[in-house]
Design goal:
Blueprint: E1 3-6, H1 16-25, E2 30-36, H2 48-55, E3 61-67, H3 75-81, E4 85-89, H4 96-105, E5 109-114, E6 132-136, H5 151-164, E7 170-174, H6 182-188, E8 192-195, H7 197-200, H8 204-222
Parallel strand pairs: 1-8, 2-3, 3-4, 4-5, 5-6, 6-7, 7-8
Helix pairs in contact: 1-8, 2-3, 5-6
The structure holds D-xylitol-5-phosphate and zinc ion (ZN).
Zinc ion binds near residues 7, 34, 174 and 194.
Length: about 220
């Protein structure tokens, strides 16, 4: 099954609840929440108070992308705020194994993210412990950037590696995803696509529907 994870970073925050609802009503199973600390990435976005307030507006899976140094510090707070899945950057964790264990012991799903220039070999030891791997297809920190083409090959290689190990781990791709590159990403082995600008710039309901249509057409084609 293919999953759309709209990133609210590109949404109009003055109408956030309404915008989120449009994505949920039209089939987006996840909601992607980009938390930035101004240290791991240059920008600062939002944190627990915003997440707990939108929790009331949505039944979607809250997929929290932690772009912060030592994200293990916030696992319990994020859980309280309503996170279902916490994704941490390999580059931001001194003790990655401990952080993943901490997330799983708190009862949440655990994901690990890699920047474009970080090789997938660094996940070798933890691959069978995580529910999702997030491959960044832009340098994290901002929405609205252009997809970096070489990251497509990382998706292919990671799916191949997971298959070899008989793992059905989710591969999420984040950054510069549009209706035009969605199909090649699915073909490469991604099954969770994050889209910020491509969903929230324009009509979020219509854009979500367009992604869902592509997913079902792709699924039909594959059969
Ligand atoms: C970038 C964030 C992304 C971003 C995606 O640091 O992790 O989730 O919001 O936005 P688009 O889809 O506009 O590239
Ligand atoms: Zn993200």
């Amino acid at each position: 099954m293919y999953i759309l994870a709209p990133s609210i970073l590109a949404a109009d925050f003055s109408r956030l609840g309404e915008e989120i609802r449009k994505t949920e009503e039209n089939g987006a199973m996840y909601l992607h929440l980009d938390v930035m600390d101004g240290a791991f990435v240059p920008s600062i976005s939002f944190g627990m108070p915003l997440i707990s307030s939108i929790r009331k507006a949505s039944g979607q899976i809250f997929d929290v992308h932690m772009m912060v140094e030592e994200p293990g510090r916030y696992v319990e707070d994020m859980k309280q705020a309503g996170a279902d899945l916490i994704c941490v950057h390999q580059e931001a964790c001194t003790h990655l194994d401990r952080t993943i264990t901490q997330i799983k012991e708190s009862g949440l799903k655990a994901g690990v993210a890699l920047n474009p220039a970080t090789p997938i070999s660094l996940l070798d030891c933890v691959l069978d412990q995580v529910d999702m791997v997030l491959l960044m297809s832009v340098n994290p920190g901002f929405g609205g950037q252009k997809f970096i083409p070489y990251t497509l090959e990382k998706v292919r290689r990671l799916r191949q590696l997971l298959n070899e190990r008989h793992l059905s781990t989710d591969i999420q791709v984040d950054g510069g995803v549009t209706l035009s590159n969605a199909e090649v990403l699915l073909d490469a082995g991604a099954n969770v696509l994050v889209a910020g600008s491509a969903v929230f710039k324009g009509d979020a309901g219509e854009n979500t529907r367009a992604f869902m249509k592509q997913f079902s057409e792709y699924e039909a084609k594959k059969k």
